[in-house]
Amino acid sequence: MASDSGQVVTRFAPSPTGFLHIGGARTALFNWLYARHHGGKALLRIEDTDRKRSTPEAIDAILDGLAWLGLDWDEDVVFQSERGARHVEVAEQLLAAGHAYKCYATTEELEKMRAAQRAAKQPLRYDGRWRDRDPADAPAGAPYVIRLKTPEDGETAIDDQVQGRVTVRNAELDDYILLRADGTPTYMLAVVVDDHDMGVTHVIRGDDHLNNAFRQLPIYHAMGWAEPTYAHIPLIHGSDGAKLSKRHGALGAETYRDEFGVLPEALFNYLLRLGWGHGDREEIDRDEAIALFDLDGVGKSPSRFDLKKLQNLNGHYIRTADDARLARLVAERIDLPTDEGLLTDAMPVLKTRARDLDELAEGAAFLFKTRPLALTEKAASLLEGDARAILHQISARLRAENNWTIEALEATTKSLAEELELGLGKLAQPMRAALTGTTTSPGIFDVLVLLGREEALARLDAQAAPASER
Questions:
Q1: Dihedral sign, CA of 244, 254, 318, 358?
Q2: Is the pTM of this model over 0.85?
Q3: Residue limits of the Aminoacyl-tRNA synthetase class I anticodon-binding domain (predicted)?
Q4: Could you list the active site residues?
Q5: Tens digit of pLDDT for each residue in 168-191?
Q6: Which of 92, 183, 224, 360 has its Cβ near the most Cβ atoms within 10 Å?
């Protein structure tokens, strides 16, 4: 189904009660990709009618997370809280047309009804006690809600683009509330009115909303509106198959950016592959995703979130990322004065094995340390015994080297190792400790070149000197 213009229109409609959850980010992505693939429109609606739980901070976090992922929207953001009058208008139209009715049941009456249903082990649903009663039977001035008069006979079927044909007996649906006693609309009414008014043709959302579709369709039918095409996506589970929780990675998009050092294109690619597939392809960039994505690639089974897979994919995108961009991102994560030019020069060496920006920052930190370098416990152990004497010889030999390149420095160091009848590692290990203060780093000759002749020799000399002189 498409809009009157034949155009596909999708929407992402988060509730701003927290961060952009990883599941919500995937739903946003699928909506955005489907619209882009079909040349349609992707819209954003903030469902902020719960004024107590919705916060400006949460709205900002959602908008920020979506923008970071590179998801843009085709019209101004719609705020559901600003559309209350329209929701009430539709409820009153339904009431006037006989598709809804006033219910004067008190809280105490409804609780007795539910207690009886529990005792009889029946489903808890409104029993329609005011469905056919005359409102004149109610006490004067008594508060009331407006309920939808749902069909009682037959069944409702949905040809879901992911789940296939799903059917529910109408007797299982109850006459739910459209307007509360205080005149405010319920979610079930607001979402239908907003989807219709925004011209939404395809409702793509988690399959936890599948039951809602059967409850929402009677409003479309009663108003004579064209119903949307539904696609209910299986939820994301943890790597152990259990419901996704924080321990599995059910965190906000900003957490993956700020705390895990994930690049947006990596999370974009990972979320794309989380429940959707195209053959055996794992690495799919943004343009390819738009070209390939369609709902027939969405699986019917829950997908499993795997942080290690995300980290491995992130490593791929780090290796292919622009060096200057990486340098800017890494500079923000190093708690030392940095030189982005030097970081940019170092990136081709640093990014070969890094899986995230934190590993990049950790690997680059040695470039900006000041002498005397603080040594890790393991690094200090590499400078015990005759290691400092060896460092002294290394420094003297390298000082005589006029060609400060990887090839020349490697040849000189190997020559010295042969003279000393030692393996190259016996020289490289104390060199790494002296030059970086750690036991892990890029290749030792890369380190020498990145530090530069003067700084590299100064660091070697500092550790080669007797303890009384350091």
A1: negative
A2: yes
A3: 326-462
A4: 246
A5: 999 999 999 999 999 999 999 999
A6: 360
